[in-house]
What we know:
Helices cover 85% and strands 0% of the residues. By secondary structure, the protein is mainly α. The chain has one domain (2-73). Helix 1 (2-30) packs antiparallel against helix 4 and helix 3 (42-51) crosses helix 4. It starts with a helix and ends in a 9-residue tail after the last helix.
Amino acid sequence: MEIVSMGLVVIGVTIVLAGTIFFLMESxxxxxxxxxACLLLxxxxxxxxxxxxxxxxxxxxxxxxxxxxxxxxPILVGYDALPAVW
Length: 86
């Protein structure tokens, strides 16, 4: 079961990376300045997401799907497999 969990995490990271690249492509499509700002400053990505929701909706949802896969991996194995933080 741990292999399936690790596979979900790897797939999730890959999906998030693809969504991030897609998001940067959309920001560069809007303007070179938006693209550079989104590439270098994270808070600008949130502004771009709100301002250009029509263009940024699909990349954002792809990233959320990847995060869901990343979170589903450890939940699938169980909380006992997670390292103790406290």
